[in-house]
Amino acid sequence: MAPVRRSTRNSKSRTGSPKKQGNPQTGAKRRTNRRNKSAASKGEIVREKSPKLELNSSPIKQKNDQQTTPTKQVISKKGKNVLFSDDLVSDLPSTPERCSSPIRSILKPVEPNSLNRAADPNDTSLWDATNNARTINPKCFEFWLPGTIIQLPSGSEKLPMLVEGCMSVLDDEKFERRFEVYAALNGIVKTNPSAILLKLFASSKKNEIQQASLPLVVQVLKDISIIEKSIFNPELDKENDSPTKGDPFKVRVVTQALKLLNFVLCDTELNSFVTNADICWIYDHACTALVNPRISKALVSPYLNIIKDCKLSSSCKRDLFSHQHILEKLLFAVLNVKGFPSVSLVTERLICLKNYVLNFPDFMAKNIDHWFEPLLLNLCNMIHPLNVKCLGVGVHCLLEAAKCFLDCTPVHTCVLNKMSSRIASSVQSFTSSQEFSECMNQLRMQNVKLGQFVVSKLQELIRAEQHKLAMDMWMALTLLSSVDAFDESTYLESWLKVPNFCFSLGPPATAIALSYWRAVCFNLCKNNLDAFRTCIDRVQRPICKGDNPLYATHTLKSKTTVMMHVFDSFPLSELPKIVIDSLDNVFLGYLYIFLSPTILKSWTKYLAAFWDKIVQPIFRKFYLAKEAGPYANHLGCEVLHTLFRVSMPHPEKEFNEARILFNDPINLPQINPLPSRFVLIKFDKMMQNMISLFELDTIKFEQKLGLLKSFLNKIKLVVKKEQSPSVTTYDLIDNLPLLLRKLLGTQAVSSEVLVRVIVVMHDVFSPSLLINCDLGSENYDNNLNVYLPIVESSSALPLEGRMTVIRLILQSLPQTKALILITDILELPTTTNDTIQIIIELLSKTNIVANTIDLQLYAMICKCISCNYEVFVKKMIQAIVSIPNSEEICRCLTLLHIDEWKSNVADHVLLLLRNAPSKSIHHFVAGIISRRLEASLVQSLAFMTKNDFSSEMFLLSGNLFDLIVKDKASLFECCVLLKQYLKFKCQQGGNDYLLIDVLAAGCSKHLDIDITFLEKLVDFSHLPLSSREVQLQKAKSSTEVLLETTSSDSQDEHSRGDIDMIDNDSMDQSSLGLITSSSQEVAGDIRSEDAVNLDRNTLKMIVKTNNSLREGRSRSSMAIENLIGKEEEVITSKQCQSESRISPHLRFPEKLSNVANNANGQIHSATSNTQGVSNYDTSEERRYSQVDESVQTPSLSAIELVKLLAEKSSQELNMFSPQQKYELESELLRFMIKLRQLE
């Protein structure tokens, strides 16, 4: 606060108070009494009288517009007059006539020569340097007229002559016009610079006068001593009853002399010519005079001016105040000056205290117990609006004290103790107010504490609308009581009533109170958050056995509560701008302390606690809440931008924790950004704030996008240095889709914006980290696609913009990750057909890699496409079929899950695989068709018959008839399709007799289709089974018994699990002969094709299978591709795992074991016999037919049978007939079904 100008005293005019002349060239004229010389006509005695004589104490008169002479009577307005005379009768302008003595003027007589002289002393042209008595020279007594102040312009050439004359007349003890001389000297020192003054008063060099002060100072001290003896001596001043009045003529001389002396002491150039002894005497004398009970009010101010500044050189201060003896006298004098009801004098005393705090902080801190409470109580006594100016000076004194003692713990402890204690008993009023003493006594009797009294006075001042003054005082006292346990103080709750009271008075008062909350912030956060750090350490890990974690937690909570007080004191919605700015300044002050260079350098571990307990709640409640309003939201966005700024922290030398106490608020560039690693570690909190901000409609999209960019650039510094992504990095990437969805879901964006987002992400993260898929393998164990929100946002763009975004992403990804992206894009409900078309075109141009992961992704892709797929699908199938290993081909095809594709795409694949040379592929295709038959029988059968899947039809014939028999609704359509297909195959020509025979026989047996039409299309000699069925139909009457027996045996076989018609004892011998004949015919056909002979046992299995189908026995179909996989597990090195899952007592069906054993023997027999079917041993056939059914052939275990089959070479296995292979596969299917059911 700027120094307060001392006001003009309001005291009544005295007769001795000097007044300046209106015109410096014209001095005041001395007036004399005029005698009334009129003769008495009635013989009365004529006596002298002074008509209308104005008894003004001051001889200095205002300038009159008319030309006056020293003897001319001047009539002025009547005012209060005082007569200073030994015979004081009345203070009226004139007194009644008295006969005892003539009336005498209070003014001293003037010499006749001086009255007749019309020369003006201010007219320097009349000055004569000679010492002639008749000349005008300052050295002459007559030069100094009463009440005439000599005033020369600055730098006048007559100044040396005037100063020399002044010193000359002052040195003469008989000279009586000292007031005018000192007044003239004061005019000189005020109007001239120090360089001129040094020439005028210090003519000799400094080193020549080290032992003596300036002659002027010596003369002043001499005059002050002499005059004050008469002023303070009651014996010499008997006319004045008041001990503090004094002779006004002498007082005014001392006043002018003290002013001159004060100027010399305050001028650093002049005071160096004053000895330390004289300065010490001046201060000591001033202290003594101030505490003198007879001191005049007019002398208090100049003495206070002398002791308040102490503008001395450093060496002089060190010499004078090193022992603090003089300082104690100075402080004692200021505190014990006799009080006068004068605002100016109280102001001077307060300025003295303020200057002492600034100039002698150690001394004032040591003696705060002596001056703090008197100062505070006197300020509380000045709450009246008339004393606002004086109160402002006192509050400024407290603020300076708070500033000087920010780190002084003894001062803080003393102030806090006093604020929590009763009011002291010995406090002197600065104004000698009786009411003050009575009020203090009453408060002491009521045991009122000082803090409570101050709070009530501050509230009173706030009611008087002096909000700033009250909060200034509140802030100063808050800082002066800044102990470590400030938040635990007993009077804190009462102390916070002051700002709370302002909060209830409207926005202006609220804003002012919030601006002073920085004092509380400083108290709790000073010394680099030492109190907070100590609490956090004790909460996290007790330092010693005596520490109580619960107490530390309570302390930490207490400090946090105080910090959050202003944000919890009133609703934060619909706040006016002035209040929002004030709260923003408070929060920026918090951040300024929390992010100090020392914290960021040495104690970053505490930053998380500050963020979680203070910063994050403020963001959530104040900045990012929708009800906070657009302005607060905008400020929050700017703060987050600042915290994410990529820059180095400010150096420690630029940081000052007391900066938050400055009146000008902290701006954003002064706040250090957050550490990059901290942003990464606390990314969840950062994202919470960003998501909240992205959801606000009051923030522009460009601001949101800029915030995202700042956030990613901030963490880039850490992510790029990681050798491998950390767990935190992975967690952050997992949450990026949510962040992008909140950003891009608010409004439509252009492709340029999406490209910017992609580029920023690629600049921070490797693109391959931003996408993944859970495929149940290493590195592919979770579903993640950061690009998906970007692709979703691009769905509203034109095709060109969409493809720009998608191509940019695909080009940056490896092939597998690109396939994951394509899969996710195709699965989006918003994906349009044109997007799918372009993606398929891109896939058609890429190289197909037939690895497990890619094939799984291709399978997902093909599930979603339905048009223009031919090139891509063909390229994919070709890449798989080109694998040399047939087992690997089937495994790769299995990964595609073709049966789950859309029907047209799956049909296309089946057509591509139809003519594949590999038998494994045929089995795979059969498996797919089998599942499709179960799902859609008619459609799948129509597809098979239309595209002539002959091999697959043969493999699936048994399962096909089973499904047709079950589906009664589709029976007619299926019969039509099969009949048409049989006609097609018969008309086609070729060697598919076996397929035609099996299908025709099955249609006759199971579907009751009349197949006699085939006799016109094909030679029945090639169709033994069909021929038998036709003959059975023709000889129905002759075979009735056989059919009944067959029906009975079929029912028994249904309960046992197998049927054997050939071994039935009731079978008609003619029928058996027919079968044998048919078998021979078939054997002849096969012989012509170099096939293996169909022995009786093989034919028996065919009949058994067909009979089983006829009875509609329910069987479960197993996909051929799955069977192949299971066979691998049994035959290959995974045999041990299969054994652990299969019970050692589990046996293959007896017939299957017999078939294998018989086939084994047959293979060896066929190998040894090279003569073909002509050398067939009929005895062997009879041996098979005469086997005793009661004697069961020992069953082979599953493991034994697998070993038996695995040991056979491919050449030996090829010796099986197609019927035997099919029967073997069927039995294996049944076994695998049973095995799966066990699981």
Give structural notes.
The protein is mainly alpha-helical and 1239 residues long. The chain is rod-shaped, with a radius of gyration of 60 Å. One of its GO terms (biological process) is telomere maintenance. Residues 13-26, 55-74, 1160-1177 have a biased composition (Polar residues).
**β-strand number:** 2
* Distance between the first and last residues' Cα: 91 Å
What do the pLDDT scores average to?
A: 76
Kindly provide the radius of gyration, computed on alpha-carbon positions and rounded to a whole number of angstroms. 60 Å
Main sheet makeup: 2 strands, antiparallel
Alpha-beta classification: mainly alpha
Task: Count every helix, treating DSSP H or I runs of 4 or more residues as helices.
Answer: 58
Poorly predicted ranges: 1-100, 107-118, 1048-1194
Per DSSP, what share of the residues sits in E-state strands of 2 or more residues?
under 5%
Strand order of the largest sheet: 1-2
So what's the overall shape? Answer: rod-shaped
Helix content: 55-70%
Biased composition (Polar residues): 13-26, 55-74, 1160-1177
Region (Disordered): 1-78, 1160-1189
Biased composition (Basic residues): 1-12, 28-37
Keywords: Cell cycle, Chromosome, Nucleus, Telomere
